[in-house]
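Worked example 3 (structure in, sequence out).
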């Protein structure tokens, strides 16, 4: 008996949004915990080990961003076909998304494995760090196909309205990683200490397990998607459609990674205290925006299903409600962060008074616009759900490359503000980007992006209650 998927086109908009968003938020938090566990155990090995992982992070983050961006295309098409009750196309898109991600990841993994020694030298590794970073990178590249396949699975499940199943898988892998990290990094009994390499091996094991479980779920047909082997034959027009739809998001995500590296270079010119304050401030920011990112991803799936069902008014209502929730909740968080800025920074550097003072200044300036940042993330998530990935990409690129970095450079280097100019660039960029996103949203042109224009929507003029519990599907 197939397990019933969640229909996101009927019922209370608020309850549907919360039920989908909460598991996504928790899964994102667990992913952050995953990284913290790695950082904790690698930190037991000393400065060279930490430097090796830190040096590898920008490369892996860049490739991860590409994978996540392309996985978004699967969410969009699956959600819209799900909204139109076209289960065969849901299954076909799923098969081609998995196939496309697997092929791309194999290409990237092979290339990355070969060029890893040169890459770490290019990034400035010294003779003590280079071998550690190379080993860590090469093993990480072995796990790249597993990571890409699981990213596709997670996005596809969100598209059919199931965010809980991926949450349980992430929880299981975090627990497993918590056990494997000390065993493989430090060694125990017959298990040899592998050092930094052990952290990468633990990650690959959990990634492989996640991908295998995800594929088994898709082939089982009990979770809203029924994958079959004949569908895995390449469908080149559909593959091109997926890559062209996901390409803008992949560009958006990868340029964000490059932008982080560039901003770090600018900040480093103002000394160690400023660099430390910036690092702590952005780390706190990365935790603050987790709920907004979860709401954004949930909004993409909700908008996608409702656009596919022809319910454009419900899609717009969902986006408005989600952005309002993000604005109010992150504004409240911003108030708390502004009040408790010094204690928050002191958690990371208890004895660095200068860093605490500078970091608190940075946080207070950013915190004023947390709500606007959250609303903008949700609105661009709605654009993606409707298939308007190009506009979402343009807004992100303008915010980073036209506003944030040039403003930070201009205010810091060409005025007497110095590092305060960098801090001010964040709230200024948040305000302008939110206004631009809101203008495009209110114009309504994002609703005219019809990905399924050759297939008429089903006749479902009225929201009717759906049966609960398992239902038979063809």
């Amino acid at each position: 008996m197939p397990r019933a998927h969640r229909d996101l086109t009927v019922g209370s908009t608020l309850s549907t949004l919360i039920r989908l968003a909460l598991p996504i938020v928790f899964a994102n938090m667990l992913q952050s915990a995953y990284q913290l566990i790695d950082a904790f155990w690698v930190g037991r090995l000393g400065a060279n080990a930490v430097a090796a992982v830190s040096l590898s992070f920008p490369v892996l983050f860049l490739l991860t961003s590409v994978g996540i961006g392309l996985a978004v295309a699967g969410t969009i098409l699956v959600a819209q076909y799900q909204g139109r009750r076209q289960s065969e196309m849901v299954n076909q898109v799923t098969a081609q998304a998995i196939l496309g991600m697997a092929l791309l990841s194999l290409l990237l993994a092979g290339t990355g494995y070969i060029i890893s020694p040169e890459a770490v030298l290019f990034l400035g590794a010294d003779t003590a760090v280079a071998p550690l970073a190379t080993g860590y990178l090469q093993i990480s590249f072995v796990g790249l196909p597993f990571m890409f396949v699981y990213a596709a699975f997670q996005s596809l499940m969100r598209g059919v309205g199931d965010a809980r199943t991926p949450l349980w898988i992430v929880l299981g892998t975090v627990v497993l990683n918590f056990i494997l990290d000390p065993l493989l990094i430090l060694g125990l009994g017959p298990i040899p200490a592998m050092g930094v390499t052990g952290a990468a091996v633990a990650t690959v094991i959990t990634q492989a397990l996640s991908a295998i479980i995800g594929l088994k779920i898709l082939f089982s047909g009990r979770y809203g998607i029924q994958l079959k082997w004949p569908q895995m034959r390449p469908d080149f027009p559909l593959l091109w459609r997926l890559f062209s739809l996901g390409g803008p998001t992949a560009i958006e995500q990868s340029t964000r990674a490059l932008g982080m590296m560039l901003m770090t270079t600018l900040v480093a010119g103002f000394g160690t205290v400023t660099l430390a304050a910036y690092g702590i401030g952005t780390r706190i920011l990365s935790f603050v925006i987790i709920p907004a990112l979860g709401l954004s991803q949930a909004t993409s799936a909700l908008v996608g299903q409702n656009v596919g069902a022809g319910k454009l008014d419900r899609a717009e209502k969902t986006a408005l409600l989600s952005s309002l929730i993000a604005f109010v909740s992150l504004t409240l968080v911003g108030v708390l962060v502004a009040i408790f800025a010094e204690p928050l920074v002191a958690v990371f550097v208890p004895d660095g008074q200068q860093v605490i003072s500078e970091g608190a200044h940075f946080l207070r300036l950013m915190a004023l616009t947390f709500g606007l940042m959250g609303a903008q993330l949700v609105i661009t998530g709605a654009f993606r759900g409707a298939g308007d990935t190009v506009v979402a990409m343009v807004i992100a690129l303008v915010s980073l490359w036209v506003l944030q970095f040039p403003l930070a450079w201009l205010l810091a280097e060409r005025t007497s503000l110095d590092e305060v100019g960098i801090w001010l660039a964040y709230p200024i960029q948040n305000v302008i980007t939110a206004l631009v996103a809101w203008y495009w949203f209110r114009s309504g042109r994002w609703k005219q992006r019809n990905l399924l224009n050759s297939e008429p929507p089903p006749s479902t003029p009225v929201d009717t209650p759906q049966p609960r519990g398992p239902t038979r599907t063809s």
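Notes: The chain is about 75% helix and 0% strand. The chain has a mean pLDDT of 87.
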